[in-house]
């Protein structure tokens, strides 16, 4: 895969279109997450979120994961 699909440390790069094609499956620390945003309604894959992480990185995750649902109660949407 090329640089448009992966960043260092197994974090998935989010294209400018705000769609997620590859998901981060592993649970991450809540302290690493600044906020979240929904993917664009035009994306072919649904039920995915973009997490904005400390250090400016982003990761795509499935909204159906139990750890993601629990984290959503404790973090705010991105502005």
From TrEMBL:
One of its GO terms (cellular component) is extracellular space. It comes from Balaenoptera physalus. This is C-C motif chemokine 1. SMART domains: SCY (SM00199). The keyword Signal applies. It comes from the Eukaryota. The keyword Disulfide bond applies. InterPro entries: Chemokine_IL8-like_dom, Interleukin_8-like_sf. Keywords: Chemotaxis, Cytokine, Disulfide bond, Glycoprotein, Signal. Residues 16-75 form the Chemokine interleukin-8-like domain. Belongs to the intercrine beta (chemokine CC) family. One of its GO terms (biological process) is immune response. Pfam families: IL8.
């Amino acid at each position: 895969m090329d640089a448009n699909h992966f960043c260092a440390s197994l974090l998935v790069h989010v294209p400018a279109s705000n769609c997620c094609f590859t998901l981060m499956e592993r649970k991450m620390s809540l302290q690493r997450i600044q906020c979240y945003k929904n993917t664009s309604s035009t994306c072919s894959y649904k039920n995915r979120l973009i997490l904005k992480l400390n250090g400016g990185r982003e990761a795509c995750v499935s909204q159906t994961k139990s750890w993601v649902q629990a984290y959503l109660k404790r973090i705010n949407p991105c502005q």
